[in-house]
Design a protein that fits this description.
about 220 residues; alpha/beta; Rossmann fold; 7 helices; globular
Length: about 220
């Protein structure tokens, strides 16, 4: 789906929100995916402007990274960001019908995209289809059960949020964004219905987000984080 990414939304996100989200992206690439093996084929579904995938590919030249997004404007931005990074590429693609063969990726990630999918269950089925049986699917999404303190700390990093507005912006985030996310229980149910053999999900400490990981083979207990 096109989601919210018209020109105005893209400008607003890149100008005001992206600088605050960047530390989260760095944590993902520096901590969660720091030790991917040579030849690992990574897919980012709903990659947006490619910040996470470009950073990951630049840090790990031994991997092969592909990002897909429904928004042509976002793919243009991602390709610009990827200039000079040989092991990453981007393509327009629909999470409901990914343009990839079965079992073609080792790690499939999706960050804050699931809430925009018209059918999250179908999207997770597609992620499972393109992930090899011994690989894993990794999801990060807004947590509708997040605390006010976590939402306030997160939105305080956004550019242009004056101290006197932080409570209001945090309230708006919880009401208009986090409320469209998915709870841990609901994400685990979606993983189960999508056919995954194993899955874990839990809130991200100190963030108004949750993280889930799923696969068709036993997963390490620390696989989520």
């Amino acid at each position: 789906m096109a989601g919210p990414w018209g020109r105005v939304a893209l400008f607003g996100y890149e100008r005001f929100i992206a600088p605050g989200v960047a530390p989260l992206h760095w944590m993902m690439t520096d901590d969660f995916f720091a030790d991917l093996p040579a030849g690992c084929r990574v897919l980012d579904v709903g990659c947006g402007s490619g910040d996470v995938l470009c950073r990951l590919a630049a840090r790990l030249p031994q991997i092969e990274a592909l990002g897909v997004d429904f928004s042509a404007a976002q793919i243009v931005r991602a390709r610009r960001r990827a200039a000079g990074i040989a092991n990453v590429s981007f393509a327009i693609g629909d999470a409901m019908n990914l343009p990839l063969p079965d079992s073609s990726r080792d790690l499939v990630i999706s960050i804050a995209a699931l809430k925009f999918w018209p059918d999250p269950l179908q999207g997770l089925r597609e992620l499972r289809r393109v992930c090899r049986p011994t690989g894993r699917v990794w999801i990060a999404e807004a947590d509708p059960e997040c605390s006010e303190a976590d939402a306030r700390a997160f939105t305080a990093r956004w550019r242009g949020v004056a101290p006197g507005l932080r409570s209001f912006v945090a309230w708006g985030f919880r009401r208009s964004i986090a409320s469209r996310g998915v709870s841990c229980a609901d994400l685990l149910d979606l993983f189960r219905r999508a056919g995954f053999a194993e899955a874990y999900a839990r809130p991200a400490p100190g963030l108004p987000l949750l993280i889930g990981v799923a696969g068709d083979e036993p997963l390490a207990r620390n696989a989520v984080c």
